[in-house]
UniProtKB/TrEMBL annotation:
Protein name: Putative cysteine ligase BshC
NCBIfam families, A to Z: thiol_BshC
Organism of derivation: Salirhabdus euzebyi
Gene encoding the protein: bshC
Residues passing through the membrane, by range: none
EC number(s) recorded for this UniProt protein: 6.-.-.-
Cited Pfam families: CC_BshC, Rossmann-like_BshC
Its job: Involved in bacillithiol (BSH) biosynthesis. May catalyze the last step of the pathway, the addition of cysteine to glucosamine malate (GlcN-Mal) to generate BSH.
Bacillithiol biosynthesis BshC C-terminal coiled-coil domain span: 383-536
EC category name: ligase
GO terms for MF: ligase activity
Domain Bacillithiol biosynthesis BshC N-terminal Rossmann-like: 1-380
Alphabetic keyword roster: Ligase
Length: 541
């Protein structure tokens, strides 16, 4: 395996400036995550805080054991009982087979940073992945994508969401899941890894009751030796731990909402884009009514109400819910980081570009709760390059950085044009001009004799030009047929390096490479030395 850092053009201004440690972006965060001193400072701050470690680890032990956690994970949960232990945390939805491969990149980032910081700080640093099990958007997690060049094919599980409920509570239809998995494997290349992998994943489905169960078991299978700890935010027992913090957020809602709104205005004034709507009357909490999550805001009378007035509470009533039925509440993108900070001894947070944009407006909210924002570390971003792809790039004499940035469609078109001299499009245009010029005297005579005869002459020219267009298309088609294999190569690098115009990590699923190469490349990737400030990496396996 070798790794090549790659610069990405077109990154959002915020994440670009953040990686470059530009003061304009850094002012919205409490720590510089690219220097070790920031982690020393953060550790000092955490030593003055206390956490409900016994209650937290009891909940984590129960849930992680229920997912078949390996010994390394159980050991790490027990290490969290130590008063000087801290966590590196990041999270994602519970996608099928972990979803787009950026979830795997995030897991690797969490594991790598935890290992690095434990060695440097000399305290237990536990990698923890926050599974967003309270999310309801089933359409976001019910499929994976794999390549059929030049496009991606979506493999969607044929299970319907019959009622609105969180992913934590949604039962996995094991029969449909097995059919879905077998359909995927019918379209994968047969290798020595195929049958064992299919057998293992089928077994994990049969052991899983919910989508979070299945996600968790897959993660533990892939990272068995790494000690990754999973926390399901939709777990009612986790909500019980959050009860007092919900109360605090309800009490301090006005300051949180005003602070976030003010920060959003300031961030936007610098030209940075944040995909967040924030108003001073936002509640930044969800209430769960008959399984449906309802985002709350505060009306002019001070009551907490749903968007369409599905529910209504006085502040005292909502506080009672937080104390007595905390499982009926959950966080949004603003309060989830705050809850994470209150619940866990967070040494650092690993986030993607969109998450870091959200976090840029949260500093005032952290200050309202009398805490600092942890170091926010951009997750590692990879493009996996298999030998087949590397060979094709050499054959086509195309640079990988160019394809990752721009795709290969323009290169393919340029190559095709070069198959004829002069290119057929140019030759066709020249012939059309010649014909129009030669045809003009006939059109002029026809127009001079009779109006309808002039119209006939114009139509005659149009018919001739249309026939030329058809001939041009047939010539182009024949050229493509004769060069089909090379066109396939262009289509392949487009599908593998720039699928549907985006990065590979946003489309491809890890099962493609597990089927071809097993799991060892993941283990090797974890131990590779990297520069956390780099935009992106090509991983040659």
């Amino acid at each position: 395996m070798r790794i090549q850092p790659v610069s990405l053009e077109g990154l959002s201004g915020l994440i670009k400036d953040y990686r470059q440690i530009d003061d304009r972006a850094m002012q919205f965060f409490d720590y510089n995550p690219f220097v070790q001193n920031g982690f020393y400072q953060r550790l000092d701050e955490l030593t003055n805080k206390t956490y409900e470690r016994k209650k937290l680890t009891d909940v984590l032990l129960e849930s992680n054991k229920g997912w078949g956690a390996p010994a390394a994970t159980i050991d790490n949960i027990n290490r969290l009982k130590q008063p000087n232990s801290v966590v590196v945390v990041g999270g994602q939805q519970a996608g099928l087979l972990t979803g787009p491969i950026y979830s795997i990149h995030k897991l690797i980032s969490i594991i790598k940073l935890a290992k690095e910081q434990e060695e440097k700080l000399g305290v237990p640093v536990v990698p923890l992945f926050w599974v967003a099990g309270e999310d309801h958007d089933f359409e976001e997690i019910n499929h994976i994508s794999l390549p059929i060049a030049p496009h991606m094919k979506k493999y969607k599980i044929l299970q319907r969401q019959t009622k609105k409920e969180s992913v934590s509570h949604m039962e996995l239809d094991q029969e449909e899941a097995v059919k879905w998995l077998e359909n995927i494997f019918r379209n994968l290349e047969e290798t020595s890894w195929t049958k064992p992998l299919l057998t293992k994943l089928t077994s994990l489905i049969e052991q899983s009751k919910t989508f979070v169960d299945f996600f968790s078991r897959v993660v533990f299978t892939l990272f068995e030796q790494e000690g990754i700890v999973l926390l399901d935010s939709g777990d009612p027992k986790v909500r019980e731990l959050e009860s007092e913090f919900f109360v605090e957020m309800i009490h301090k809602r006005p300051e949180i909402a005003e602070g976030v709104r003010s920060a959003l205005n300031k961030v936007s004034s610098l030209g940075y884009s944040v995909a967040l709507d924030a108003e001073v009357n936002d509640g930044h909490l969800f209430y769960h009514l008959n399984g449906e999550r309802i985002l709350l805001h505060v009306d002019e009378g001070g009551s907490w109400v749903g968007k369409n007035e599905e529910c209504k509470f006085t502040e005292e009533e909502l506080i009672r819910v937080a104390k007595e039925q905390p499982s009926l509440l959950s966080n949004n993108v603003v309060t989830r980081p705050l809850m994470q900070e209150k619940l866990l001894p967070v040494l650092a947070f690993i986030g993607g570009p969109g998450e870091i944009a959200y976090w840029s407006v949260l500093k005032p909210a952290f200050e309202v709760l009398n805490v600092k924002m942890p170091p926010v570390v951009p997750r590692l971003s990879y493009t996996i390059v298999e030998p087949k792809t590397e060979k094709v790039l050499r054959q086509l004499a195309v640079r990988i950085e160019h394809v990752i940035q721009n795709g290969s469609a323009v290169d393919k078109l340029s190559w095709l044009k070069g198959r004829t001299t002069p290119p057929v499009e140019e030759l066709s245009d020249q012939v059309k001009l010649t014909i129009e010029k030669a045809h003009k005297p006939l059109r002029d005579i026809a127009k001079g004799l009779q109006a309808d005869l002039g119209q006939m002459a114009e139509k005659n020219l149009l018919n001739i030009l249309n026939e030329l267009d058809y001939l041009e298309q047939r010539i182009s088609y024949t050229i493509k047929e004769k060069n089909f294999q090379t066109i396939q190569k262009f289509d392949w690098i487009e599908a593998t390096l720039k699928p549907d115009g985006g990065l590979q990590e946003r489309m491809w699923n890890v099962v493609y490479w597990l089927n071809l190469y097993g799991e060892n490349w993941l283990k090797e990737l974890i131990v590779q030395e990297i520069d956390w400030e780099a935009d992106h990496f090509c991983v040659y396996i």
